[in-house]
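Lab notebook: predicted structure, single chain.

Context: the supervisor wants predicted structures on file for every construct in the current expression panel, including those that have not yet been purified. This is the next one on the list. No modifications to the sequence; it matches the entry in the shared construct table.
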Amino acid sequence: MAAVQVVHKRIVVEPPRTEPTDSGWYLTSGPALPLNAQKGDVTCECLVIGAGWMGLHAARRYAELRPQAKVVLVDAGRIGNNASGRCMGFAIDLAHNPRKQDFVEDDQGNRDELYVNTEGINYLKSAVEELGVDCDWDPQGKYHSAASEGGVADLVEFSKALDRLDQKYSWVERDEMREITGSKHYIKALHHPGTILIQPAKYLKNMARKLPANVTVFENTAVRSAIFGNTQHVFETAAGTIKAKKVIICTAGYLQNFGFFPNSAIPVYTFASMTRPLTAKELASVGSHETYGLIPANSFGTTVRRTFDNRLYLRNVYSYATNFKTTLEDVMNARKQQQVSFDRRWPELSAMGFEASWGGLLTLSQNGGMAWGEFAPNVYGAAFCNGTGIARGTAFGKAVAELAIGAKSHSIDILQKRTPPCRAYPTLITSLGVRFVTGRRFKQAGIEV
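Prediction complete. Output recorded below exactly as produced.
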């Protein structure tokens, strides 16, 4: 992606919105990180803005490759409770595209996707195995699960795409699905190996603890303004300024607040709920597998996780987020639908309800394009995952840090060829369109929800 010329003027940066509830992943992720506050003005070689999958791994990689350089990582909130920590914890090697019936792109696009995502997963794995990052790492793959004949037809289309890519998978019939999950709801599934299940907030927090010693982390540190220059950039926060020779911006849809790719982000929220820990007696009702991750056959169905701490997580409902904002009412309305989904899957348990519910921001672009590369002299960034953020985001962050120091790699070559995001339609049209399409497809998903 070609760099653009910087205009040397002060850009006022609107801060990210505060979420109405904490995510269940964050609430169960263990002790909070020590809150390190910025004290006065700071100077560094590289500033990374945003500590999600992209930003955290950009900071890690830059610091690994430049061990004498001072790197500063800032996040407007708490690491692990940001959008990255609100996903369902699937680190997926071959991304599924919910806009397409068979979930997949063209064959070359999928080969590139698989290469980049595998690099991301391997970088995550190195954090677990070499740095000791605790995240409930679980390499069991994922189950694309159907509750209807229409869902089974969707899985058949998916399997044809996997066949073209010479991907391994196996079919799971009704009785085995009931044995795995304890639920009568599912009639067939396709198991696809390669995906890693993790506790996302736990990973993000513990990876922050294991960053190289030359990385300084400031949480609850929103950037208020930015002045981009050719040799030095200046950022204002509540505590002072941060001056950096290079900056890597990893703020998802909020990238436009820094003046790049304006009016390109389509902000969509999806919602999830979590049960309390199940008792020993209750666990007998949720199957023989200690953990599992279920992807719905219909992309607007319900995603399910059973976790090592004996909880069930259910995610569904998509909504357009006007001004990147959701409300407590939105979260509670989604919770009602998740209760319906709980009733369908485990009616003997569902009266327990949920212990926590939350929303998470998913940034899409009109054309499925992504922002990645050098946006201006010494200004780098990565944004617009368009879903599947753990493996993809980790790889994007690692590669953009390598680009920032002048390194070369096959992933960089792939990402530099990606189509950038186009401008979205006017907000009113986009919001009406997203609400119409998501509402219609949610209804069509039927009992897959």
